[in-house]
Amino acid sequence: MSDPVSVLVVTGTGTGVGKTAVTAALAALARAEGRRVAVLKPAQTGVAPGEPGDIDEVTRLAGEVTARELRRYPDPLAPEVAARRSGIAPVGPAEAAGAASELAETHDLVLVEGAGGLLVRFDADGGTLADVAWSLSAPLLVVAEAGLGTLNATALTAEVATARGLNVLGVVIGSWPAQPDLAALCNVSDLPVAAGSPLLGALAEGAGGLDRDAFLEAARAGLSPWFGGDFDAERFEKGLNAQS
Q1: Which residues constitute the catalytic centre (predicted)?
Q2: Residue 74, exposed/middle/buried by CB under 10 A (0-12, 13-18, 19+)?
């Protein structure tokens, strides 16, 4: 990663957009550069005690990273709702930011992966991942879907992030389809406009099902040189145009 940051916050335009795979790809590339990597998941929902969660998936794909999960809730709901239903204490932005800062003292890169979108509530006071990023003065990476509907969700995420004084580093397509439709093809050029920041990657569909070595190659192909990869948005778009 050129001009490396010590903490990077990874958010999605919604749930199921590929945040965990992108987080794992970032971690894998950083590890390949010899960097000490930590991954922080402030709130994991929809996973029972003893079951593997998102940070377990990251370590499976990326290898040896420090993985920390602050709170786990069994219901597949927003963290604040899941915490209320379970009776388990919520995770506030201050606790999450404090944990990230602590990890940053002994690691070269700390990746903070959110739950769902940027404004999903962590606690009854309305704390969100945006508050965590603001507290850390950390840049934000937005993971978006490839197809129809993604432009609005990406624009909303980027607009609120900017309004809250956050630095939107760029956008990554969390799962680029093997057979993209017209909307996905058009969105390659339109997503950076919606995000107001560059397209920094497009991770191949199914990358999360690969073994560790193959995943590293997929991460390298799917993420920008800014993260240690080979992805070039202009070359990517030209290749798609040549195929269509």
Answers
A1: 41
A2: middle
